[in-house]
Amino acid sequence: MVMSDMLGLYLKRSRKERGLTLRDVEGKTEISNAYLSQLENQKITNPSPQILHKLADCYNISYGRLMELVGYPVPEREISGPAFRKGSGFDDLTKEEKENVMEYIRFLRSRRMKR
Q: Which terminal Cβ of the chain has fewer Cβ within 10 Å, N or C?
């Protein structure tokens, strides 16, 4: 499976995990549901960064990961997220969960600095 095929599957899974319909996403992003359907079904494989950014915001997923799946160059730290390896599952956390994890990392680092 090519990376661009994975984009459609990843977007569909992300949408369904959030209980959203294509029309819901259309309302939140102003991206037509027909275009969204074509993305999910791999008929469109090279969406613009602007489209990817809107979808990343809507699904609360990594913009860097979407860029990577399309084949756009992305710095490594943008792909994996701070202090996490690629594929760690960090992308699937809610914004609040990510903030909590980052707060805990800062706490651990502050303890390390005191030693």
A: C
CA distance 90 to 76: 14
| 71 vs 58: CA distance, rounded Å | 21
User: Token pair for residue 18?
Assistant: 């959030």
Dump pLDDT digits (tens) for 82-92.
444 445 566 67
Rounded to whole angstroms, what are the CA distances from 14 to 6, 61, 88, 99?
Answer: 12, 8, 16, 20
Secondary structure letter of residue 92 according to DSSP: G
Q: Write down all domains in the chain, each with its CATH number in brackets.
A: 3-114 (1.10.260.40)
Indicate yes or no: pTM above 0.70: no
- Which residues lie closer than 8 Å to 45 by C-beta, 6 or more apart? 4, 5, 7, 8, 70
